[in-house]
Amino acid sequence: MNDAIKYIIEFLLHDNRDLVGTIGYTSDVQEFSKYKVVIIPSAFFNKEIYGQNKSLPTLPLKQLDGTPILYGDAKTERLNNTIIVNADIIASTYFLITRYEEFIHPNDNRDEHGRYIGKQSLPYMAGFIKRPIVDEYSNLLLKYLSAAGCDIKPTKSEIKNIYLTHDIDFLTHYRSLRGFLGGIKRNLFSPSKLCKVLKSTTKLENDPDFTYPWILEQDRKIENAKLIYFVKSVIKQDASDYPNYNLKGKDFTKIKNLLQKNNCKFGLHTSYFSGSNLAYIAKEKQKLEQSLNFEITFNRWHFLRALQPDDYQHLEQSGITDDFSLGYADVAGFRLGTARPVHWINPKTFEVGKLLLHPLSAMDCTFSNSNYMNLSENEAFEQIKDLLNEIKKYNGEVVLLWHNSIFTEDNYHKSLYIKIINKLERNI
Question: pTM of the full predicted structure?
């Protein structure tokens, strides 16, 4: 647990990690004079409380300088030259970045896919889902250190990294046998649509899901953006993993070559099946690496099906270094309480892993699906702008997820995506 606490303090210090020794996490008055700032621990980490329902925060939350506090008292005081913070921002941060409430509720508040429901989460219920309050804790801590006489490097108000990511759930629409037969059946009495189905079989570029050139045209407008495509590598599939495309086929090879030519990276799109059968993660990763002929270190779960916080040990053990899954499917916001990438902490063992978690900023269907937020284009864009502004304020990173196939549907996503790209162009 000491390693986890030390890591959290370093994370909260942002670019001031050289000041880690000036912060104490203790209730021992005899120790206070050793530090510039002392954070008083709550009972959260006590053995008889941790892991129990009684360790969960109670609503309404207290506010410290306008920021919600999950544990401790919302007050500060000065003792000689030391500032005492009675709000336990260490435990509060730990709760959020470890998905602690999901750890406590392994079977509760889940949807039909086993995913934790964002609208039943503490961040949503407490009203701070759209605020990265862990980053607000950072600002509070730095403010107290400054008041105690420390020289502080200010947090930059700029977006640090931009990841424009795309999940290839459907490589093509009609060019597989299943897709072709389904297209014929659905469009048998629509000559114009039937013509599109037949035309798709003659040339890859005619397939409606071949939106990759258009996506690349948009994404390349953002200088220094990192472009990542997550590819399925299904071995044993659930019905939700269909269609399973051929990684050695001509269509995938042509698309792969196009993306590589444009400096895109690839990640593993771990299958729906592997979400609850974790031993298959390493097998799927190996299959994808053999197909691509290079190492894969990025991951995103299909359906964002990151079920339990400690499941991430299987990603780490398989050689994954970066995960881009952690947003709620049903509501946009800061699932981990931060706009910055954070190392995975195993809530069972308190170990700080090497795996880096990149908070998912926004996903296409979260905004448009009737069973999620069900927003209009203008409403969606306003929410995304607010999220981007929060990310910029705290020197965070943007992680967007728009599927290649969503740009072919009768919806607003082409127009919305262009607006988002234009917004990012102006913010850099």
Answer: 0.96
